[in-house]
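Backbone-to-sequence.
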């Protein structure tokens, strides 16, 4: 099973906000940190606001922040709201099932139990469980640790940074 990129980015937007609890986060800041388009992040932020997980402030000095404490946001709920399809096998959807052996097959039950175990595990974890406290940078004012949880950089091996660049600035 693999999460859709949309769900991955949704979790990372929440993680970024949780890592910077004392300030508003701009979409531009996250877009730059994650190397994603602002338009893509605006859709995610809009969905998260509609779900009541973040609040948005428009205009100069605006941005987004969590509405709830990270310990109150269950990962399972976020994944359920972000993913569009949990049909692991064809027979999960009775209306489109054309499997000829569906009546004698036990695969649906096996994968159904696996999906339940998956969500049981995710429901036991909160945003606080997957976000480390933001490290304070030397000379940074309190509350502006600016932790960045890389998306695309994590996939690169070996991890490299341009000389003189700072992550998250």
């Amino acid at each position: 099973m693999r999460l859709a990129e949309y769900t991955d980015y949704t979790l990372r937007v929440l993680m970024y906000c949780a890592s910077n609890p004392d300030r508003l986060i701009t979409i531009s800041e996250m877009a730059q940190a994650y190397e994603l388009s602002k338009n893509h992040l605006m859709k995610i932020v809009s969905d998260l606001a509609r779900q009541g997980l973040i609040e948005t402030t428009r205009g100069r000095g605006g941005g987004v922040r969590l509405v709830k404490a990270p310990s109150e946001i269950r990962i399972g709920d976020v994944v359920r709201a972000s993913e569009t399809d949990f049909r692991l096998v064809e027979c999960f959807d009775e209306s489109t099932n054309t499997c000829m052996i569906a009546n004698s097959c036990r695969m649906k039950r096996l994968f159904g139990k696996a999906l339940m175990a998956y969500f049981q595990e995710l429901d036991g974890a909160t945003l606080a469980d997957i976000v480390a406290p933001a490290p304070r940078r030397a000379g940074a004012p309190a509350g502006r640790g600016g932790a960045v949880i890389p998306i695309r950089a994590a996939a690169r091996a070996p991890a490299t940074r341009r000389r003189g660049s700072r992550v998250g600035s």
